[in-house]
Amino acid sequence: MTVQPNSIEARDAAYHMHSYTNARVLEAEGPLIIEEGDGIYVTDNSGKRYIEGMSGLWSVAVGFGEDRLAKVANDQMRKLPYYHTFAQRSHTPSAELAEKLIQMAPVAMSKVYFTNSGSEANDTMVKLLWYRSNALGKPEKKKIISRIKGYHGITVASGSLTGLPYNHMSFDLPIPQVMHAGCPHYSAFAQDGESEADFVARLARELDELIQAEGPDTIAGFIGEPVMGAGGVIVPPEGYWKAIQDVLKKYDILLIADEVICGFGRTGQMFGSQTMGIEPDIMVLSKQLSSSYIPFSALMMNDRTYQPIADETARIGTFGHGFTGSGHPVGAAVSLENLKIIEENDLVGNAARMSPLFLDRLNRLAAHDLAKEMRGIGLIGALELHPQGDATGKAGPALVNACMERGLILRPLGDSVAFCPPLIITEDQVNQMFDIVDEAIASLSF
């Protein structure tokens, strides 16, 4: 890419530091500038149109350019553009959204706490677990178990929960209270001759051994995505979540389901917890909650989580935590309308109906000579390539670039390529997306 002087690309590269980007490459090459969005498509500033095969960042459930969300945001901005939820203040959108989420929860939940991103929600979750342990008179019960390849955000606490090297390197993470259990990726981590059932049993046994080694009375919680996203779209083997939950129940350890990617239809049911048979104590929500039209997130907690926290606020006299934008009225109003669209247009059902075709086309790609395996469920999937020698680590980006040249935006995760289209996608559009990938992968050689 050649950056023209004084172009928007050059100005962006000169003044704007990007996430998940090599800063020196950005300075030299500039960014792709996206100007417009419509349905499953986005258009760059040269007029080139792309299928957004990643829903932005796993998140635009209702597609781009949804007028209902724009109207609700405008109406709320005019009526009450901002108010807070500190010191017993609230407003109608946050009250109604909290009620709606409690009604939607797949297991009994007690309270909702609003934040502005998945990272903030998980960071808040960590503080709540520590606060709760102190309230229970268990100041030693502060450790949290996450998993290798899990993704839970990028703040100091949530970045520590994340189990990916790039999120730790040079940041001095993870913090000491966080440890990582095994990843449920069978083909990558199974031992020779180990069946899926044996693999599941071993991961559960290793978790039990980790808890015993650390001391059960020091473990506050276990966090996991129902289906791992940024770690490579890793669908756990059958029986995995039951085995993990059995261990956690044995030691009375809270279970946190990170539904930031899976929630609101991505796996073909409203929540990934339903798809995977998880009964969480805390659920973390973001992305498709507002379709990322506006930054918004939440966590829900059950009564056994909430009651000690509430008692501690009474003892201290306040809950000394909060964000200026917690429960923002515009974000809450947009989220409410977004959930209405998901329900009224049966987008969860559409994900379930499109899933067989989506997974079939993904599976056909896995038969290619350059492919290693496919992974997927609902409308989320990944194709892993198997390059040789010095091509390792470059195959995923190469395929993504070849797709982008042909009008499809995907995301490389090492040598895997992730797919996560908007939930509004049609059969014709699924086929159009995979036809592009077919052509792109045929153009590659390693």
TrEMBL record:
Record's keyword annotation contains Transferase: yes
Its recorded name reads Taurine--pyruvate aminotransferase
What organism is this sequence from? Thalassovita gelatinovora
* Cofactor requirements of the protein: pyridoxal 5'-phosphate
Q: Which family does it belong to?
A: Belongs to the class-III pyridoxal-phosphate-dependent aminotransferase family.
Q: Which GO terms describe its biological process?
A: biotin biosynthetic process; gamma-aminobutyric acid metabolic process
By its UniProt entry, which SUPFAM superfamilies does this protein fall under? PLP-dependent transferases
Molecular functions (GO terms): adenosylmethionine-8-amino-7-oxononanoate transaminase activity; pyridoxal phosphate binding; taurine-pyruvate aminotransferase activity
Q: Name one Pfam family in it.
A: Aminotran_3
